[in-house]
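Dear colleagues,

For the upcoming journal club I promised to circulate an example of a predicted protein-ligand complex. I picked one with molybdenum atom because it came up in last month's discussion. The inputs are reproduced below in full, followed by the predicted structure.
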Amino acid sequence: MKRPGFLYGAFAGLLVTAPMAALAFLAQRAFGAPFLPFDLFDWLARTLPGPVVTFGIDATVDTIRALNLGDVSEVAKTAEQALAVGLFLLAGVIVGAALFAGTRGRRSAVPAALVVGALLGVLAFLASFAVDAATRDRPVPYLSWAVGAHLLWGLAVGWIRDRLVVPSRAEQRSAEAPPNAAGRPDATARRVDRRRFLVRVGGATALITVVGAGVGALLRSDVRSARTEAGASGVPDGPWSSRNPLPNAGATPEPAPGTRPELTPVDEHYRIDINLRPPTVDAGTWQLNVGGLVDRTRQLTLDDLRAYPALDQFVTLSCISNRLGGDLISTTRWTGVSLQRLLPDLGLSDEATHLRIASVDGFFEIVAIETILADERVMLAYDWDGLPLPEPNGFPLRVYVPDVYGMKQPKWIDSIEAIDGWEEGYWVQRGWDAEARMRATSVIDTVATDMMIDETERTLIPVGGIAHAGARGIDRVELRVDDGEWREAELRPALSGTTWAIWRYDWPFEPGEHTLTVRCVDGSGEPQIAERNPVRPSGATGLLSEEVMLAAEEAG
Ligand SMILES: Nc1nc2c(c(=O)[nH]1)N[C@H]1C(S)=C(S)[C@@H](COP(=O)(O)O)O[C@H]1N2
Ligand SMILES: [Mo]
């Protein structure tokens, strides 16, 4: 008997895995079922060694920047999602090939395929259970779902394999009934039949894939937006910034035309985390578990936390992976409860020196109690710009610690454990800076050649951008044209001591080609580091330059 080889198996794996992914996507959109390919990818991202993961992230970000694909955090998520689906298909191809190869001598591949399917189903469930809060919430239906889907996968692959078996001549001769009306076809005829069969199966699976993915994409995600709901019941009239002037409204200088918004619209705030889809947390059942070195464990609800005096502060958050001049930095207004205020009510024992703050996605960081006692701005935040945190940014609760990069600030937190020593946090374990203090950075957002200012003697080009140095503030921003002197820019008062400051320099330019370079000095008098360093392990350093070409007729 001639058995189809592993290449057929690879193809069968692809044919069956593609519609399975599409149907899983449909199930996610229709019922909010955890999406296997994403959960597996997220599990890999947590489990693989730090350098491998960081290499993957670097390669993605480099590609996005090199090809100029746009918003880094958004495009990177999409690229990772595509990669997750690609890897899922690849796994299907490999297991399909292995199944065909491993069942060579067997009459039927179905029993083996079912066993493999069941195993894969359980593995997929375990991966999902490890990374996805939705799976932990409803383990039984999702276990059945994962095992059922994989059993079907096995059944389909096994069936294809059995259908592709070509009987030998001797077997055909001894066969009691002719396989089809044409009499006794030889192996060549069966091979043609094989191809026809595969084309038919391929057509059917392609159809299921396209329809499943298409309907899934059209469906409005069933997962209700907790932010909208909480916002509807809690806060009346939309974002805080739509109802209030910024604290520095009317201050001078005005930002140069083309400077980024001083307050980032919340839906444009960058997003970085280890999840392909943000975890959805049910605000109704969510609680913050406080344990470890405490007199007794406590469960705090969102209402408990909102009952404390609210602390409002403008915050610029940046990712340690932000490249020089990159877009992984944003500013909004955070509201929450100061941890300093909350601490006495947590019943910490005397040995407690640190808090281990952990999230529903397995992310965690350690905050020293000393830091909390020294700075009332360390807080548990529940609102951004006057509305509950958006799901991608940590709904319902996240931590804020001034002066350190985003990797130190868990989102979606659900537990605080008092411990008696420092530990490495999630990204520190994976090779990033233990302190992760924000580097000073300054960026040219705009050289507004279309908004020149005509004076009697000369014409000025407004140049402007931002400078940021964690909670140290910005003392001075300077601009240099070509190899000239450093000239001081005007500084707009920042929204707070922890936000970026907008600077502006009205440049009395000369026509020609110029290089503009910007640098800053932070509030403690420390100049921005000019030496170039990559983002890993401690955040990017270096000065940014902008090339401009000004034709003679532009001079007034
Ligand atoms: N639970 C959780 N919190 C997290 C992360 C994460 O992966 N999981 N990523 C951190 C990183 S690296 C950054 S830069 C900030 C980004 O916050 P944002 O997405 O709201 O801008 O979240 C931090 N908090
Ligand atoms: Mo980050």
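Two points we might discuss: Residues 261 and 390 are 19 Å apart (CA to CA). Residues 272, 319-321, 406-407 surround molybdenum atom (ligand 2) (CB under 6 Å).

See you all on Thursday,
B. R.
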